[in-house]
Design brief:
Blueprint lengths: L2 H19 L3 H6 L1 H21 L3 H6 L7 H14 L4 H26 L2 H11 L2 H7 L1
Helix pairs in contact: 1-3, 1-5, 5-6
Length: about 140
Amino acid sequence: MNRSPFMQKLYEILADRPLFLNATEERRNKLKDVIEFFDRQIADNLVYELYFKEKFAEVVSKHLKAVNYDRWSELYWKRELEGDLKPEEEKELKDLENENLKTIIEVVKAIKSDREIMELIEKIKGHEWVRLVEG
């Protein structure tokens, strides 16, 4: 498997999550556990995989689903900066918000319930170099 395009796509899918989840203070506070899970468990382990070759990315990727961050962001910032969304755009924004949150929560549940992923996380996090880096 050519890992470069695979990893690029994987990072693109993951990159939208922190942008979406951290967009509002309310969401940041309400979803701290979800944000931390993606940051500390998934993103960190993908970086560590570069050194340990544990196939973490392959296993995690089977659960990841893209969120529609681009359209959500377009509507969100239009509303925030211009304050001028049409009723149908307001509905679309609300629907995208709900759809994106639902997708993210489903992905977290699926990953947390995947024994293979959780074992890989423990294996990687248990390595002496990783313990040193994480202090």
